[in-house]
Structure formats: C-alpha cells, structure tokens
Amino acid sequence: MSIIGASAIEHVLSPEDRFSEVLFGLIMTLSIAGTMSVVAEGNQEVKTMLLSILGCNIAWGIIDGIFYLFGSISDRGREHALSNLVRNTPDPEVARAALEEVLPSSLADALQPEEVVAIQRRLAKLPESAGGKVLTMEDVLGAVAVFVLVVLSCVPLIIPFLFMSDPLSALRVSNAIAIVMLFFGGYRYARFAGLSKITTGLVMVVLGVAMVGITIALGG
Questions:
Q1: Of 77, 83, 122, 169, which one's alpha carbon is 20 to 30 angstroms from that of 203?
Q2: Dihedral pair phi/psi, residue 128, rounded to 5°
Q3: CB within 8 Å of 184: residues ≥ 6 apart
C-alpha cells in the first residue's frame, strides 16, 4: 500500500467507513465480472475483463473519494454551526435541543441542565472562528484512503484471471475469494459493532451475494 499506509487509513477512516469501502469494491468487482460473464456467455477475454474491472474500480474510487470530501465539508459546517448555536444562545433549552440532535439518545437523556450550561461556558472561553478551514489535510488523506480501499479490494478477486486461462473457472475462484473476504470483513466489523462475529460474517456473505445478484439482474 504505497500511496497511504494501513495505519494512516485506520487514523482517518472509521471501522464502518473502511468496511463499507471494501464492501463496495468487492460488490463492484463481482458485479462487473458476473455481468460480463453472463453477457459474453463465458467467452469474454480475460484481458478485457481485467481492464474493465480495474477501470471501473478506479473510476468509482475517485468518485467515492470526492463524495468523501463533500461529506467532510458538510460535517465540518454542521459542527461549526452547532458550536456557534450552543455558544451564543441564551436559552439552555435551545442548546440542549441542539446537542440532543447530534448525541446518542442514551447520552442525550442523561444530559442535565447544569451540564449544558457548563458546555456553553467552556465554548465561550474558546476563540470563535469565522468558519474554519473548508478542507484539511486529514480530509484529503481520507479521500485518498477511500480510493485506495476501493481499488485494492478488487486485487485479490482479479488474481485468478491472471493465472487461469478459462474465464468461467477464474470467475468461480474469484467468487470464492470474495465470499471469504466478505466473511472476514463482517467478522472484523462485528468486533467494533459489538455483534456476534460468526453470525455477522455469515450475514455479510448473504447480503453481499444478494446485492451482487440484484445488481446483475438489473443490468448493473
């Protein structure tokens, strides 16, 4: 991973973001390979399939990275607006209502009026900015990380096409690799979500296969 290291990806992207990007890349790869195989009835040249898979994943990696930047800008704007609202409103109930919109319900319910006032006082002591930076280096690194994950997620799936002359056989091996990756992706995701690891892994396999089937059936 020459563009951005694994530790950097973990720093700028949450476990949910990392998992969703890898899942997106897997589904994209499986959908393209499956659709091309169906259309060509198994006679699709390996080189053409590989170029199509890589090209689509690179294109969607770029698009997804741009969407990540838009999301970062939007999140920062909301954070700034919330901070100013809580800081400047004279009504603690208005501040509390604003905080409740962004806090988990369990924390929002436990928030006491005096704690809201304390938060307002702390914010008042901080220097007030005009809006902050539109983009930060962390945003850019996050977008690069999104691109890298989407593109690299297809690499294990295209390896069979490099060493097998029969596209259909290579496709079956590629699908098997994808199933294993989906399972272990769900297994790792369960660690952060507090879910059953085996069950989550199996559910991700079923969901992944179902999404690919729907994509192919709809001509995607």
A1: 169
A2: -90, 125
A3: 201
CA-CA distance, 173 to 180, in Å (whole number)? 11
Nearest to 6 by CA among 138, 140, 149: 149
Q: How many other CB atoms sit within 10 Å of the CB of residue 19? A: 19
- Read off the tokens for 197: 């690891």
Q: Tell me the C-alpha distance between 146 and 68, whole Å.
A: 8
**Are 128 and 87 spatial neighbours (Cβ–Cβ below 8 Å)?**
yes
* Nearest of 35, 27, 4 to residue 179 by alpha carbon: 27
User: At residue 1, does pLDDT exceed 60?
Assistant: no
- Model confidence over 176-210: pLDDT tens digits? 888 888 888 888 878 777 788 888 888 888 887 77
pLDDT in tens, 86-136: 777 777 777 777 777 777 777 767 777 777 777 777 777 666 655 556 778
User: What residue spans define the domains of the chain?
Assistant: 6-154
Beta carbons within 8 Å of 202's beta carbon, 6+ residues apart:
183, 186
Buried-exposed string 32-56: b where 16+ CB fall within 10 A, e elsewhere = bbbbbbeeeeeebebeebbebbbeb
**What does the block give as tokens for 24?**
């997106």
Spatial CB neighbours of 65, under 8 Å, sequence gap ≥ 6: 143, 144, 146, 147
The helix/strand count (H/E) of the chain reads as 10, 0
Angle between helical axes of 15-40 and 167-193 (0-180°, round to 10): 160
